[in-house]
């Protein structure tokens, strides 16, 4: 379904077309000729009704390229339907008229620079490696620019292979709205392999590893996407501690860290109190690294924050597993949930964790 920006709802395959229009003999699916889409037959949406990116507080119509169904970009990519949107771009499913396949086309707003993203993708493209994690990264097919119909603005476009839904979109569709243990293990193995390749061979840090940036591939493998926040660095001892609370939330009924106060607003004090409940008291070395620590702990490391420490720990939060599997699962998570970053296990170390390897060798 497409709702941008012409206020129409339509679909490539949702129209009552004549039989000959969809006959595979007269109109093969990989025809190089652009398809002619109907100009009527859908429901109109009132212009005053805001949809998708129009609901973003910073949305400005003039910054977005007015993509149209059937439009051909760069003389080869014909728009079929809309895949997604964000504050800086819209994403579209397109037919590659030359490559005879489908692609995902990301069209950025005019004020967004993608130079760092392109630097990362170009850097990754130069690496010759047999590391399994390289195949878990979504590649860039090409990039080009298109001029806005107003003739005054330029939009950068990135072309990627199309993928499935993200992990945060998958979870609500699962039984109980959580991932099974086997799904978590498979997902984590792919994420860790991708991160290990980035860290050890590409010297790249992906600083926004979260479920909406992890997309399902054709063979149900998790593929790390979106290098908006990635950085090229020298060799560093990196870890994956940041992704664990999100993965926990996809596999458990209770959040690891809600980080919200009674008014449902993000709150640092609430977040730190929840972290101490799960990780225990932070070491003095950790507190000495931040000038803000005295807002929440006294000189002796005693909690003095605005909310009490919650009455739970990692064991009580985990409610789905039993016996040895629960013990192995929690031990796996504790290897990443450490106050001091240098004490957290690296992606390479975690790849061979006994819990993660469970079920692979029989």
Model description:
This is Kinase-like protein. With 362 residues, the chain is an alpha+beta fold. The protein is built from eleven helices and twelve strands. The protein has a six-stranded antiparallel beta sheet with strand order 3-4-5-6-8-7, with no helix packed on it. It has a two-stranded antiparallel sheet with strand order 1-2. A two-stranded antiparallel ribbon has the order 9-12. It is globular and about 70 Å long. The two termini are 45 Å apart. The N terminus is likely disordered.
Chain-wise SSE layout:
Blueprint: E1 8-9, H1 19-22, E2 43-44, E3 72-73, E4 77-85, E5 89-96, E6 101-108, H2 115-125, E7 142-147, E8 154-160, H3 167-170, H4 181-202, E9 204-205, E10 214-216, E11 222-224, E12 231-232, H5 244-251, H6 268-279, H7 284-287, H8 314-317, H9 323-334, H10 347-351, H11 354-357
Organism: Aspergillus costaricaensis CBS 115574
Protein name: Kinase-like protein
């Amino acid at each position: 379904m497409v709702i941008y920006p012409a206020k129409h709802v339509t679909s490539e395959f949702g129209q009552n077309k004549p039989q000959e229009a969809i006959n595979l003999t007269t109109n093969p699916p990989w025809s190089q000729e652009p398809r002619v889409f109907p100009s009527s037959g859908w429901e109109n949406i009132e212009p005053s009704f805001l949809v998708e990116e129009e609901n973003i507080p910073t949305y400005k119509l003039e910054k977005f390229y007015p993509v149209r169904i059937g439009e051909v970009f760069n003389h080869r990519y014909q728009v079929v339907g809309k895949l997604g949107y964000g504050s800086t771009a819209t994403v579209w499913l397109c037919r590659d008229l030359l490559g005879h396949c489908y692609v995902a086309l990301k069209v950025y707003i005019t004020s967004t620079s993608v130079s760092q993203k392109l630097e990362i993708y170009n850097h990754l493209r130069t690496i010759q490696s047999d590391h399994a994690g390289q195949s878990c990264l979504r590649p860039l097919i090409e990039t080009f620019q298109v001029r806005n119909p107003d003739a005054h603005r330029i939009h950068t476009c990135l072309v990627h292979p199309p993928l499935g839904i993200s992990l945060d979109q998958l979870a609500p569709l699962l039984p109980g709205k959580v991932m099974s243990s086997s799904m978590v293990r498979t997902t984590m193995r792919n994420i860790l392999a991708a991160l290990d390749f980035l860290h050890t061979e590409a010297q790249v840090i992906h600083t926004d590893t979260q479920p909406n940036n992890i997309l399902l591939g054709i063979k149900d493998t998790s593929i790390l996407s979106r290098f908006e926040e990635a950085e090229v660095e020298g060799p560093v001892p990196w870890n994956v501690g940041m992704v664990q609370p999100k993965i926990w939330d996809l596999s458990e009924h209770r959040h690891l860290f809600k980080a919200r106060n009674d008014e449902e607003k993000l709150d640092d004090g609430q977040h730190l109190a929840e972290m101490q409940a799960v990780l225990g008291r932070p070491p003095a070395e950790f507190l000495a690294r931040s000038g803000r620590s005295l807002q929440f702990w006294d000189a002796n490391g005693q909690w003095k924050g605005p909310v009490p420490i919650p009455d739970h720990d990692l064991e009580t939060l985990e409610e789905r597993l039993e016996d040895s599997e629960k013990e192995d699962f929690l031990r796996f998570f504790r290897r990443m949930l450490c106050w001091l970053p240098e004490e957290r296990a690296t992606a390479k170390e975690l790849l061979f964790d006994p819990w993660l390897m469970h079920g692979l060798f029989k």
